[in-house]
Amino acid sequence: LGEESEERDDHLLPM
Amino acid sequence: MAEAEGESLESWLNKATNPSNRQEDWEYIIGFCDQINKELEGPQISVRLLAHKIQSPQEWEAVQALTVLEACMKNCGRRFHNEVGKFRFLNELIKVVSPKYLGDRVSEKVKTKIIELLYSWTVALPEESKIKDAYHMLKRQGIVQSDPPVPADRTLIPSPPPRPKNP
What we know:
The structure holds 2 protein chains of 2 kinds. The mean pLDDT of chain A is 82. Chain A has 1 helix and no strands. Chain A is 53% helix and 0% strand. Chain A is rod-shaped, with a radius of gyration of 9 Å. Chain B is 59% helix and 0% strand. In chain B, helix 3 runs antiparallel to helix 4 and helix 4 packs across helix 5. The longest helix of chain B has 17 residues. The mean pLDDT of chain B is 91. The chains are: A mainly alpha, B mainly alpha. At the A-B interface, loops of A face helix 6 and helix 8 of B.
């Protein structure tokens, strides 16, 4: 679960 | 978060990136890599420390930090690759090369090295798809004009061991 939520929160920087 | 006795990740990295080093010090660089491999959360902690050093306003400190990062990619295995392959860390590199963030204040030497590293990992670690996403975004933005000349076959060969000190 922890890994899944980390994956969801991992976004490319807005440019 | 238990720490090994003696040197910590932070103390190894401070020594490996010390701006007063006259040249890259492989004893400290390999010491940092070994410490990452010893600690349970070594990769997670080390990428945060490295990102901070790579964003240093002192060029020589940032260049040494990039050499350390390159050495870690060669010597610290998949656990480390997985951390570098997250946007959380990749974004810290993007900030350094992008004029929207720190790019205007950073030397060309540091920016070139970051782009070379990113490109070499897209070739050597195709399974880390976020590295490719980050690199292609930099291309779309015009920050990367063309792929740098990096010998792909040499990208992830382990670094040389520390040279023994002269007696």
